[in-house]
Amino acid sequence: MQGGAATQEEPRAGARVLTLLANPLHVRIIRTHAEQPLRLAELHERTEWPAQTTLRAAVGNLRRFGVLTRHEVSRMPYGVANELTEAGREMLFVADVLERWLARAPQGPIELDSDAAKGAVKALADGWSSTMVRELASEPASLTELDRQIPEVSYPSLERRLKRMRATRQVEPSSVNGRGQPFEATDWLRHSVAPLSAAGRCERRHMREESAPITAVEVEAAFLLAIPLVPLSESASGTCTLTARAESENGDGRDGFAGVTVDIEDGVVVRCVPQVQQDASTWALGSPSTWLDAVIDGRLESLRLGGSMPQLAADLVNGLHLALFGGAETVI
């Protein structure tokens, strides 16, 4: 396994925001505040009358994560309303990206504020935080192999997470021979790099003290999942290394480099491996933040592109943006 692993209790980068959005009431509260601040009584009505204690707990949770803040609207009793912070407004964008991902579900579109969405998003966040997604992004693996590759997470916990990912069709049985029944990432799981990226950027911008670093695990998983989705012209051929300055797992400042090397023949990705070639003939390099801006917003100028075929690097990065965000307006 590359770059280490998180414990079960530690959400990896992006998982914290996705877990917040897995709660249907959180989603309704955030979207209901999009236009203006609201008193609790107004929010209660507009969110279809959930239990008062449940609503107060949800609002308190969103305040704790900096999504909502108190706003004084008058000196009268109950003259305090809640309004979205900058983090809350970016959460609106993340919710939109997550909704687009759920609409692609193989079993049919899933409504964002539904129990089915809660299950799918929770399965994704748990699989991501356990590094199971990272391992399956690299190659098919059985539960026995995952248990060996991820010793920090217990076998029963891995089994539950794999079952949930299979039930929500994020993984499927593979025809590849292996020890036990191997599973592989579905195209839907590959497209989950979009909401994971949006959530990771939101955390990085607004919840940096509470969120996990973007390490080699996240960098490699995202590239390995998304690269097979990239559209390329038939004339594209060559080798390119995509590299990010990954952060240290324990925050000791010992950051390194992580990424993938991609081989392309006649517009088809024939090989994508989690390794960084120091003497790469063609390359794209950036920090986690600049990579997120490039993939989400299509801002290629935020990265350093170079080597003998810089256009190939540009085509790969632009292809990542198109495959995951489809040219929709994403700059916020």
Task: Describe the model.
By secondary structure, the chain is an alpha+beta fold. The chain has two domains: 15-190, Orthogonal Bundle (Arc Repressor Mutant, subunit A); 214-325, Nonspecific Lipid-transfer Protein, Chain A, CATH 3.30.1050.10. Helix content is 46%, strand content 15%. The protein has helices at residues 15-21, 24-32, 40-46, 52-64, 86-103, 115-129, 132-138, 143-149, 155-167, 187-191, 193-206, 216-226, 288-297, 310-325; strands at residues 68-72, 80-84, 171-173, 183-185, 238-246, 256-265, 268-273, 282-286, 304-307. The protein has a five-stranded mixed β-sheet. It has a two-stranded antiparallel ribbon with strand order 1-2. Strands 3-4 form a two-stranded antiparallel ribbon. Helix 1 runs antiparallel to helix 6 and helix 6 crosses helix 9 (155-167). It is globular and about 65 Å long. The relative contact order is 0.13. Mean pLDDT is 91; it is low at 1-8.
What features would you highlight for this structure?
single chain; 332 residues; disordered N terminus; Nonspecific Lipid-transfer Protein, Chain A; 14 helices; two-stranded antiparallel sheet; 2 domains; five-stranded mixed β-sheet; Arc Repressor Mutant, subunit A; alpha+beta
Chart the SSEs and their pairings.
Elements: H1 15-21, H2 24-32, H3 40-46, H4 52-64, E1 68-72, E2 80-84, H5 86-103, H6 115-129, H7 132-138, H8 143-149, H9 155-167, E3 171-173, E4 183-185, H10 187-191, H11 193-206, H12 216-226, E5 238-246, E6 256-265, E7 268-273, E8 282-286, H13 288-297, E9 304-307, H14 310-325
Parallel strand pairs: 5-8
Antiparallel strand pairs: 1-2, 3-4, 5-6, 6-7, 8-9
Helix pairs in contact: 1-6, 1-11, 5-11, 6-9, 7-12, 8-9, 11-13, 13-14
